[in-house]
Structure to design on (582 residues):
């Protein structure tokens, strides 16, 4: 049960001063809280024996008020120190998770679904924060504070009465332990179900257009209802155990009260204790209710926290499958890019996505990559970005193996526009500034002109300040592609990769963008993957991929003269364009 504290020892060691201060202050506040019942018992005895004077009563009331003020001040200090420390843990862990997500490759995101990761970064972190804050409080109260109360009852009143009143405690310990194990197992299932529901909601929101287009609203609503019902039932299973804590504690506390009052009254009659002692003892028994409840709360909180911490640590312990080497080499400029007998298969697949790829690219060249769907174009680019491990052969930049260059440097060189454009829920200006954070409006307008987006921006209600919505929902497919192009252009990268990034624009717009590219990208390397071959006719080299192999290679003129797949496809597309015009 206490393993969660051991797992968090890295945090407690770092902030040990904060936690030592909070715990010491909590103990002092608890000790001060034990004095008022003694004053009450003392006053009752003075009244009983008719020895209470006005001066003594005034001193007792003044002392009581002073204790209240001191207790309040110290309680504020421990409360603020302890729970702010828990907030720091949540912030720190959330930052670690975010850094971890940013360092992960597609393999990780293929294993963990987005909704489940969101659940771990929200619900599970709250449970961990509760453990580091309220969990520490209940630990101190259920152990030290309870011992302090028992010691006051035993040493200052009667050990016989104290031991008799505490007979229900062993029963409580056994029952609470059983409840704790049940909560841990059920809470893990509830959190997993919550993660699945989160993921389903995200998919429904992202795919709402498709859901409406195929009239699947009712089916999606039913699926969501079934998932929420599953989450509800699993949480009810947790609540059922949770609900047993309080009545169980009340029964045991009631037994303690019964023993305390019954046996205590007998001791008063036998002159073993005074009436004031009996009143004080029962006040202490009342004070003992919270520490006894705290035992149940402690088990509940620690089991939830332990389950959540296991889920978060499982995520954080996932090792990135692509890392920097120990001593990365520094490469100033990318003069050449060389693929030497590159063979690659995605993790957990036996099929080769790329087979014996050999390619030499010089600085300033434009390379066209074409082929059927699934030929390996995107895979080739992913290897250049070092998104996957398991590469056989090597890719070199300026005669240095890609694996010997730091990931940061590689990605600083490359401007990448993928097939599926990612738009952030920000303004168009902010989306473009991802390529260059300090870009001015003048620079932004310039790259929008290159991406042939100026006419569109004039039609948008707020110009550059137009919010694009969730995943760019307010923009058309072609507009999203051109904003993504502008974002890559403003970076002015050494290597620009366009992965079928012109598929949603018309032929005329494509031709203008390509012409702008030819003017702007002189002396810089550009890779263009496209299904529309007109996008690569100007390329210095065109590579035709089929089933992961290079089957044709050369300039547009050379490939047309060979009469292979490239010529056949190009002529077919030209014919389709002519028919569309006519």
């Amino acid at each position: 049960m206490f393993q969660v504290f051991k797992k968090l020892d890295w945090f407690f060691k770092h902030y040990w001063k904060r936690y030592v201060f909070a715990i010491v202050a909590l103990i002092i506040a608890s000790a001060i809280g034990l004095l008022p019942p003694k004053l009450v018992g003392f006053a009752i005895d003075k009244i009983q024996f008719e020895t209470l004077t006005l001066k003594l009563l005034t001193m007792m009331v003044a002392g009581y008020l002073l204790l209240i003020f001191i207790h309040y001040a110290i309680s504020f200090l421990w409360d603020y120190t302890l729970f702010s420390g828990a907030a720091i843990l949540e912030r720190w862990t959330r930052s670690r998770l975010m850094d971890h997500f940013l360092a992960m490759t597609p393999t990780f995101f293929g294993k963990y679904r987005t909704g489940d990761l969101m659940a771990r970064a929200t619900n599970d972190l709250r449970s961990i924060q509760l453990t580091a804050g309220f969990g520490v409080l209940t630990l101190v109260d259920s152990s030290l504070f309870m011992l302090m109360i028992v010691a006051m009852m035993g040493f200052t009143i009667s050990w016989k009465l104290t031991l008799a009143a505490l007979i229900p405690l062993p029963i409580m310990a056994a029952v609470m332990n059983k409840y704790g194990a049940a909560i841990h197992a059920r809470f893990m299932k509830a959190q997993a179900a919550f993660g699945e529901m989160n993921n389903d909601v995200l998919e429904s929101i992202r795919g709402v257009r498709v859901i409406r287009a195929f009239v699947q609203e009712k089916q999606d609503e039913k699926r969501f209802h079934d998932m929420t019902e599953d989450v509800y039932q699993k949480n009810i299973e947790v609540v059922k155990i949770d609900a047993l804590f309080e009545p169980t504690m009340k029964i045991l506390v009631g037994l303690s009260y019964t023993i305390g009052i019954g046996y205590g009254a007998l001791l008063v009659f036998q002159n073993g204790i005074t009436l004031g002692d009996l009143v004080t003892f029962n006040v202490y028994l009342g004070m003992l209710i919270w520490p006894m409840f705290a035992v149940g709360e402690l088990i509940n909180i620690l089991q939830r926290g332990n389950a959540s911490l296991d889920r978060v640590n499982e995520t954080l312990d996932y090792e990135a499958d692509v890392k920097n080497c120990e001593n990365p080499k520094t490469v100033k400029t990318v003069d050449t890019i060389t693929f030497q007998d590159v063979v690659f298969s995605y993790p957990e697949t036996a099929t080769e996505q790329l087979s014996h790829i050999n390619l030499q690219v010089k600085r300033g060249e434009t390379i066209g990559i074409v082929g059927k769907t699934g030929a390996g174009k995107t895979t080739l680019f992913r290897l250049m970005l070092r998104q996957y491990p398991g590469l056989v052969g090597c890719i070199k930049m300026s005669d240095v193996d890609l694996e010997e260059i730091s990931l940061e440097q590689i990605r600083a060189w490359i401007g990448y526009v993928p097939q599926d454009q990612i738009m952030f829920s920000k303004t168009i200006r902010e989306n473009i500034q991802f390529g260059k954070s300090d870009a001015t409006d003048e620079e932004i307008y310039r790259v929008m002109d290159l991406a042939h987006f100026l006419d569109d921006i004039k039609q948008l209600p707020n110009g550059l300040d137009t919010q694009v919505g969730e995943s760019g929902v307010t923009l058309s497919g072609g507009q999203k592609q051109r904003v993504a192009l502008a974002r890559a252009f403003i970076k002015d990268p050494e290597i620009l990769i366009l992965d079928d990034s012109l598929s949603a624009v018309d032929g005329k717009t494509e031709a203008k963008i390509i012409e702008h590219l030819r003017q702007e990208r002189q002396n810089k390397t550009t890779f263009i993957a496209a299904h529309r071959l007109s996008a690569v006719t100007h390329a210095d080299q065109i590579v035709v991929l089929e089933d992961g192999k290079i089957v044709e290679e050369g300039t547009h003129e050379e490939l047309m003269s060979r009469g292979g797949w490239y010529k056949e496809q190009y002529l077919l597309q030209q014919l389709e364009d002519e028919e569309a015009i006519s």
Observations:
- The mean pLDDT is 86.
- Residues 217-269 form the longest helix (53 residues).
